[in-house]
Amino acid sequence: MPKLRGEAFWRETLRSAHYVVAPMVDQSELAWRLLSRRHGAQLCYTPMLHAQVFLRDANYRRENLYDEACPEDRPLIVQFCANDPEVFVQAALLAQDYCDAIDLNLGCPQMIAKRGHYGAFLQEEWDLLQRMILLANEKLSVPITCKIRVFPDIDKTVKYAQMLEKAGCQLLTVHGRTKEQKGPLAGVASWEHIQAVRKAVNIPVFANGNIQCLSDVEECIRKTGVHGVMSAEGNLHNPALFEGRNPLVWEMAEEYLEIVRKYPCPLSYVRAHLFKLWHHTLQVYQQLREELAKVKTLEGIVDVNRELKLRCQEEIANQKEGEKPKEGLPFFHWICQPYIRPGPKERCRENGDSGTEKGVRGKRALEEEEDGNSELLSKNKQKKKLRNPNKSFDPSLKPKYAKCDQCGNPKGTKCVFNMCRGCCKKRAFKEVADCPGHGLLFKTKYEKSLSWQHSQRGIQTAEISQRGDAEVGETAVLKEAGDS
């Protein structure tokens, strides 16, 4: 059967999917995909898989794809990150029998993607991307798709999309944010960019960004003309988003936990999902938040979920008539609803803006705050403070370390060279010396080696001598026998 392309691929293979669950690392596993499909999702992506690891590690393939094969979980697109055409295609060949298409991740903006040189950090390398997609389009039996982020300039974004289409991409998902828009700086996704791409290409386009409820989906399709809409965070906080419902949190949580019993996944995934579902409630019941973070078994998570449900039901029973949701929420905290990510904190340091925009405090500025006011600490440090109230983040109270003579790192207090372990190891190896302070015994081991070699030579010499004496004796005996 010939490989379907473009519109035909979207209509027949993907069944004209409009509602799409995004690829999410450690979050779009089989159990969550099945829950989302039960509540309106028509197409799902796997979490991003590393092509290099997928190619070399059979356990990774089995745990992340092969063992998750399920008839209910179709249509399904497998997403890879890669930066080498051959590696990408070889990994895709191992995955193509378990999915309906292969997606190349060109949208991940995280630092790990920058270090690994993949995701959105390939968006300037058009020659490489063309080679990857051309080769995949030629070798694979399933279509190749791409998920991208936009450039600040609309025209460049359009040319980028057209280049991918020309190379062989059969469906394009456009996240309407640049690679710099992430975390507290995410801001609003640009549907204008998405609309421009949709008009410029002849392949199906999915939109991603600003999707918190079903009305957002409908508005996005109307304004941009895309074929479908992808949701990530909106789906994590409300799996029934595509049904247009806002169910009780415990209903979704209990249904998800039942699916996990049938299709197990790492406990960290389950915990992360419950943190998202119960996000607003856990702001009220901080103690249960701590318990959820500490539990080590699925049954423990089920117990915490049950306790959260009971607390909410008690609150509902004691609710006064006409009472409204607190904290500016659209619904009461026990109802699935969007989470609006807060922007950067708007406070300047007294001595200036530290290289960031005026009035915007960066993460580094938060870390340098004094310990006196916990409100000025980063969220991560506030959590540490909660676990250990005596912990101090005041830089002036940090212990002072003597520095290595070579690199400036803290030196070993008992190092014979006054260096850190790394520099000490290099010098001790070069000079065949010992440093007991760092447990480095190059000289001792070398001397032992020489001693052993000397003893071995002595043993060999003695054996040769004995063998020679034996041969002389044997010759003498034979000679005497001949004379007689």
UniProtKB/TrEMBL annotation:
Region annotation (Disordered) ranges: 346-394
GO cellular component: cytoplasm; nucleus
Domain named DUS-like FMN-binding: residues: 21-310
Source species taxonomy: Eukaryota, Metazoa, Chordata, Craniata, Vertebrata
One Pfam family hit: Dus
Compartments it resides in: Cytoplasm; Nucleus
Family recorded in the similarity comment: Belongs to the Dus family. Dus1 subfamily.
Keyword NADP: yes
Origin: domain of life: Eukaryota
Keyword Ion transport found: no
Gene that this sequence comes from: Dus1l
Reactions that this protein is recorded to catalyse: 5,6-dihydrouridine(16) in tRNA + NADP(+) = uridine(16) in tRNA + NADPH + H(+); 5,6-dihydrouridine(16) in tRNA + NAD(+) = uridine(16) in tRNA + NADH + H(+); 5,6-dihydrouridine(17) in tRNA + NADP(+) = uridine(17) in tRNA + NADPH + H(+); 5,6-dihydrouridine(17) in tRNA + NAD(+) = uridine(17) in tRNA + NADH + H(+)
Cofactor(s) in the UniProt record: FMN
Signal peptide segment: none
GO MF: flavin adenine dinucleotide binding; tRNA dihydrouridine synthase activity
Principal location class: cytoplasm
Entry EC number(s): 1.3.1.88
Name listed for the protein in its UniProt record: tRNA-dihydrouridine(16/17) synthase [NAD(P)(+)]-like
Compositional bias annotation for Basic and acidic residues: 346-366
PANTHER family: TRNA-DIHYDROURIDINE SYNTHASE, TRNA-DIHYDROURIDINE(16_17) SYNTHASE [NAD(P)(+)]-LIKE
Entry keywords, A to Z: Cytoplasm, Flavoprotein, FMN, NAD, NADP, Nucleus, Oxidoreductase, tRNA processing
Function: Catalyzes the synthesis of dihydrouridine, a modified base found in the D-loop of most tRNAs. Specifically modifies U16 and U17 in cytoplasmic tRNAs. Affects the level of some mature tRNA and thereby the total cellular translation.
